[in-house]
Amino acid sequence: MEENQNNFGSQSVPENQPPSESTKAAFLYKRPVGPVTFGLIILMFFFSFIDIKCNNMSLAKIKGYQLATGYSLEKGSGEGDHKQHPNLFAAGALFLGLLGFGLAFVRSKPGSVMKIVCGFLGFMNMALLFISLKYDVAKSNRSSSSDNPFGGSIKISIDFQLAFWIALLLFIFGGVLGILELRKKKI
C-alpha cells in the first residue's frame, strides 16, 4: 500500500510524488496574495509611521497618510499650529501602493511588470522617506542647539513605528510576487 487516501475525497495520491511545478506557482497565482499584499500596504498608511520625540518624550505620532498629505503640529501655549507640507516620498509610496493594489487584479504580462515596478519603486520611496526624515531631524538638531534661549540641550528624534517597517517589507514582497507571476508566464 503505497498510496495515501486524501481525507477530502476519494482521490489517491502516490506517497513520494512531489507537487508539480504548476501546483507550486498556482498557489501564488490563484490566491489573492497580490491584492492582499498591496491592500495591507495601504492599510499600514492609516497607522503611526513615526513618533516625534523631544528629549525622549513623545510629542506626536504621525500616520503614513499624514506624511503623504501634510499635517499640523501644535506649537504649544497658544502660538498656533506649525503646518508641515506633504512629504513627496510618502506621497509617492502611497500612490504606488494604490496603483499596485489596482494592478494586482490584472493577470497579464504588462500587469506583472507594473507590479514589480510598483513594489520596488515603493520600497525605494520608503527607504528615501527614512533617509530624508533622519536627515531633516539631524539638520534641525544642529540648528536648534544654537537657538536655545534656555541654554539647555534640546534633542529632537524620530522613531519609525512598526507600520512603517511592515509597509517597507510588503513593498518588497509585492515586487517579488510580480517576478514570480512573470516567471510562471514563461516570457
Q: Can you walk me through this structure?
A:
The chain is an alpha+beta fold and 187 residues long. Helix content is 57%, strand content 18%. It has helices at 21-30, 33-44, 64-69, 88-103, 109-147, 162-184; strands at 3-5, 12-14, 48-54, 57-63, 71-74, 81-84, 156-160. The chain is elongated, with a radius of gyration of 23 Å. The model has no long low-confidence stretch (mean pLDDT 81).
A few lines on this structure:
With 187 residues, the chain is an alpha+beta fold.
CATH architecture: Up-down Bundle
- Overall tally of structural domains: 1
Termini Cα gap: 42 Å
The low-confidence runs, each spanning 5 or more residues with pLDDT under 50, are none
Helix fraction bin = 55-70%
Count of separate DSSP helical elements: 6
Decide which structural class fits the backbone. Answer: alpha+beta
Main β-sheet description: 3 strands, antiparallel
Number of E strands: 7
Average pLDDT value? 81
The largest beta-sheet arranges its strands as 4-3-7
Kindly provide the radius of gyration, computed on alpha-carbon positions and rounded to a whole number of angstroms. Answer: 23 Å
Order of helices and strands: EEHHEEHEEHHEH
Task: Kindly estimate the percentage of residues that lie in beta strands according to DSSP.
Answer: 15-25%
CATH topology: Butyryl-CoA Dehydrogenase, subunit A, domain 3
CATH class: Mainly Alpha
Overall form: elongated
What descriptive keywords fit this protein?
Butyryl-CoA Dehydrogenase, subunit A, domain 3, 57% helix, 187 residues, alpha+beta, 6 helices
Summarize the topology.
Layout: E1 3-5, E2 12-14, H1 21-30, H2 33-44, E3 48-54, E4 57-63, H3 64-69, E5 71-74, E6 81-84, H4 88-103, H5 109-147, E7 156-160, H6 162-184
Antiparallel strand pairs: 1-2, 3-4, 3-7, 5-6
Helix pairs in contact: 1-6, 2-4, 2-6, 4-5, 5-6
